[in-house]
Amino acid sequence: MAVADLSQIVKAYDVRGVVPDQWDESLAKLFGAAFAQVTGAEAIVVGHDMRPSSPGLSRAFARGAADFGVSVTEIGLCSTDQLYYASGALDLPGAMFTASHNPAQYNGIKMCRAGAAPIGQDTGLAEIRALVEQWAESGAPAPVATPGEITARETLEDYAAHLRGLVDLTAIRPLKVVVDAGNGMGGHTVPTVFKGLPLDLVPMYFELDGTFPNHEANPLDPANIVDLQKRVRDEGADLGIAFDGDADRCFVVDERGEGVSPSAVTALVAGRELARNGGSGTVIHNLITSWSVPEVVRESGGTPVRTRVGHSFIKQEMADTGAIFGGEHSAHYYFKDFWNADTGMLAALHVLAALGGQQGPLSELVAQYDRYAGSGEINSTVADQEGRAAAVREAYEGRDGLTLDELDGLTVTADDWWFNLRASNTEPLLRLNVEARDTATMERVRDDVLALVRA
């Protein structure tokens, strides 16, 4: 295994690549050994999704760690947030085998330290990669004399009970909810989490199938929620919920089949979490969530903190500030009461509780959080990311009434609009997000920036 190959699969926050072309069980075993060494743990927890390659990769990783004398608890099939639950509740470093919404031939590892603390490039992943590269070339160290024990443990019921203990759904009115699991891990977790709640559940694609026969398990792509939207309308349901492949993100659809923006969900949940915490607390939001998020946080008595895009930045800011909640435009939602980790399931329970706690439809409930016109994220393929970004910066620098900052890419803010332009870390793309007080202004700013980007 050459160094160049590992550079293709070790990303900023996780390991991800095609199996067996880019990595396989022999490499997974080395990752397990390296994970054991870098964390210094005496025991770890390992789980996996429904992809065909996941059980074998997960077991190889476990054997690699056990060879170093580490005890391994295997929780088997689970969602990513269920693995975070196990890491938090058992206070053990954890590894989740999943490639989230990527196609079937992909797989990956999301790793964390005890208490679900993230492992990324700057927090251990670079060291793990260096060890795997070294051992792939020269051979792994000999196993210790007494290998660690590998045992199985069931955590689904405990995970579900923990979530239900954080949101009171006992007094809500009955709701009809369509859930599209996309043949991913939501099909495994939803029946247990929703059990006993006053919900008429209409399941879609709950069969676990890592080949994703119905649609890609990425609900942020509008093409992948078309089935859900139609089913919500056909069923006369109160709402629809779609989960991604490893069920750590959720996307919400209202009773008309219209998508509810993740910023509106962030604002709604932020208000509820602030109320639950006595009307005060810090809420994290990344810099491309809607203006409505910090507004609602302030209106609810909280303190909004703006951060870069990406879960490692959000989780670090959560820890540094003692924040009670964090949300991203990508439908990742982070909770202090969930070890600062992201869980789409807990966000979904908050939406159900908010909707079921009043009589109006979801579209009316979220309208108060949907205050501005947004472009959504627009990707442009460019040969020279730096050059095109510099051209945009030059066009807006020095204009009266504008502020520019470079917390993450370039953000330009006016009284009635803002945009952010960021370069992709992995592809030759520039990503544009625009928001304004009205649609005409948003479209004008969007078109002006795109003309510069695509010149």
Largest sheet: 7 strands, mixed
- What is the 3D form? globular
Q: Assign a percent range to the helix content.
A: 25-40%
Share of β-strand residues: 15-25%
Which structural class best describes the helix and strand composition?
A: alpha/beta
- CATH class of the largest domain, named Alpha Beta
The number of helical segments is 15
Q: Which architecture of the largest domain would the CATH scheme give at its second level?
A: 3-Layer(aba) Sandwich
CATH homology superfamily of the largest domain: Alpha-D-Glucose-1,6-Bisphosphate, subunit A, domain 3
Q: What is the CA-atom radius of gyration, in angstroms?
A: 22 Å
- Looking at how many chains there are and whether they match, the oligomeric state comes to single chain
Number of strands: 22
Low-pLDDT regions: none
Report the mean per-residue pLDDT as an integer: 96
The name of the CATH topology of the largest domain is Alpha-D-Glucose-1,6-Bisphosphate, Chain A, domain 3
Q: Kindly report how far apart the N and C termini lie.
A: 41 Å
Domain module count: 4
Description:
By secondary structure, the chain is α/β, with parallel strands linked by helices. It has four domains: 3-154, Alpha-D-Glucose-1,6-Bisphosphate, Chain A, domain 3 (3-Layer(aba) Sandwich); 158-256, Alpha-D-Glucose-1,6-Bisphosphate, subunit A, domain 3 (Alpha-D-Glucose-1,6-Bisphosphate, Chain A, domain 3), CATH 3.40.120.10; 262-367, Alpha-D-Glucose-1,6-Bisphosphate, subunit A, domain 3 (Alpha-D-Glucose-1,6-Bisphosphate, Chain A, domain 3, 3-Layer(aba) Sandwich), CATH 3.40.120.10; 373-453, Alpha-D-phosphohexomutase, C-terminal domain (TATA-Binding Protein), CATH 3.30.310. 37% of the residues lie in helices and 22% in strands. Strands 1, 2, 3, 4, 5, 6 and 7 form a seven-stranded mixed beta sheet that branches. A hairpin with a 5-residue loop joins strand 21 (417-423) and strand 22 (429-436). Helix 2 crosses helix 5 (125-138). It is globular. The model has no long low-confidence stretch (mean pLDDT 96). Its cofactor is Mg(2+).
